[in-house]
Amino acid sequence: MTTTGELELRVLDRIDKARRRKAKITDERVTLAHGAGGKASQTLTDAVFLEAFRNPLLEPLSDQAVFGIGNARLAFSTDSYVVRPLFFPGGDIGDLAVNGTVNDLAMAGARPLYLSAGFILEEGFPLESLTRVVASMARAANAAGVQIVTGDTKVVERGKADGCYLNTAGIGVIEHPFALTADAVKPGDAVLISGPIGEHGVTVMLARGELDIDSDLCSDTAPLHGIVADLLTAVDGVRCLRDATRGGVATIVNEIARAADVAVVFDERAIPMRAEVRGAAELLGIDPLYLACEGRFVAFVEGAQADAALASLRAHPLGTGAAIIGRVVADPPGLVLLKTEFGGTRIVDVLIGDPLPRIC
Amino acid sequence: MTTTGELELRVLDRIDKARRRKAKITDERVTLAHGAGGKASQTLTDAVFLEAFRNPLLEPLSDQAVFGIGNARLAFSTDSYVVRPLFFPGGDIGDLAVNGTVNDLAMAGARPLYLSAGFILEEGFPLESLTRVVASMARAANAAGVQIVTGDTKVVERGKADGCYLNTAGIGVIEHPFALTADAVKPGDAVLISGPIGEHGVTVMLARGELDIDSDLCSDTAPLHGIVADLLTAVDGVRCLRDATRGGVATIVNEIARAADVAVVFDERAIPMRAEVRGAAELLGIDPLYLACEGRFVAFVEGAQADAALASLRAHPLGTGAAIIGRVVADPPGLVLLKTEFGGTRIVDVLIGDPLPRIC
């Protein structure tokens, strides 16, 4: 007779073995899932990009590379933006592209300094829309205290793009002594989130008009380096930070659990979420843990400093909705578990497929 | 009665006034010319990007920004690549994207260190093609001594891109004391080119199969930081370097003439060009001075050091075809003139329109 416990162990063993296999890509063609930030993206990154480019700075596969030049410790990051629609409540592709790269730098604890901007425009794109995007970038850069110092524009024929795609890369300087890396996370650490989840994902989805829902939801897009700097000043036990963009909280916490070889247990009741987000996620049939945020980050902090970290986050205007949402334990290594509102426990895997393409 | 001389002066005066007007964009929609690197690109950059982002690092509108962090002097640059076809004799979008950003850094005299890579893929793009592009990037990075340390992949629906678009940004360190800027160029300087012009532009054009020409031409895509480092070691009178990409030699030299408020006089007979390039350009009805190179640069050097600079260029494998192609004079400021093979002189303006869209 097989007990439930034994069955669970076997399942975990199978998951573990599958994960340790060398990444191999079996698809013959690129699918939307390869850009969704979840399992297919990870396989593509491991099997194609890491395999070809392998070097010690790339290998951690963080959202930014960290290196020294002269006496400066720098962070360097890039993201392309293909969000549809270009304009949505609370933001547009312009401030998203500035804040997104600012945040990738901020997650290394860097002070963002300089951004590049690379536009790929479709022939026929209205100049008025481009001017709006650019004005929004300028406002966001100004608000974040960064300068856009270099750029490039390409134009492709009508039908070979979708209005406007935008890449930003950024450089920041790291001025504190902490190394914020996924493998620093340890059993006993607390897991915090800086605010309610899923607002960006649901807002963009609703802006497409495919669901007939009226809502006053706005994207949470915001620059996070200020709240991060406050946190790093307030507590010295911050292990790792990650903004919860594509793939949502579930995916990024899975990545960290695997990198650190620990388990993370979420407390479902503790995860902050607006009622509109919960409702829309239910209608869309999407677990809110996979919804993208563009102004929220997850912090792994030494357990004893969890309350101090929470107080620091809540003291910042972008962190008033912060919460402690889980803890790090030793077993089962590499897995994320959710203690549900109803008292059960389920495994939370990385995002599979792409329920919400072109969210950023 | 109006003499020819008076007429010419009036024309020059009108050109001059037009140029000094505040950039204003009259188009309502983006056209292919806005991405061609010529006049429309300049207007877009001035009227939209510079107007919104204005800061002292962006203002020179060079191919890279130069700034200090800590005790290091750094260069930072970005370019997106939309070349069609993705694979062509002598290269592909992968090595083009690596060499292109390496060269933008090299033109500031920087030693390129780290690159980012941002992919925008079309759903359905063959994984085999992506793997080829990535392998080519890895080889080019290896050859140039740079590391690809951070990246991002987005996927858009079928019909919303054209296979694969690619952005690279790069960081380099400047280890010499020279400031290479357009406004350092002075009357008396010599103008050199590192090799024959137009091979990339014609190769990509022929690879589209729209002209029924057989040719063994290859793209000249190559990393230029090595030949630049040798030049900066050999002579201390280098004023300004610019690689002759979109818009060709004519456009970049015009930009420098305007920035430095000097005139440049080309000697048509001295401009190195393969017979196949000359022939294809004639068939296409394009002045070869507007054809893109991806492994050639123009150097402005103090006149007395022209021969030493030429010898340095020719001593490098990428500079065997180098030549002195012109000189800087005081008048008429901001203009580029060509002394033709037939003894006449004509004005060479920046590129107008886009005769060869998606060349890089």
Automatic annotation (TrEMBL), chains A, B:
UniProt similarity note: Belongs to the HypE family.
Gene: hypE
Ranges annotated as spanning the membrane: none
Domain PurM-like C-terminal: 186-332
Gene3D superfamilies: PurM-like C-terminal domain, PurM-like, N-terminal domain
Domain PurM-like N-terminal positions: 63-174
Gene Ontology BP term (one): protein maturation
Highest taxon of the lineage: Bacteria
Protein name according to UniProt: Hydrogenase expression/formation protein HypE
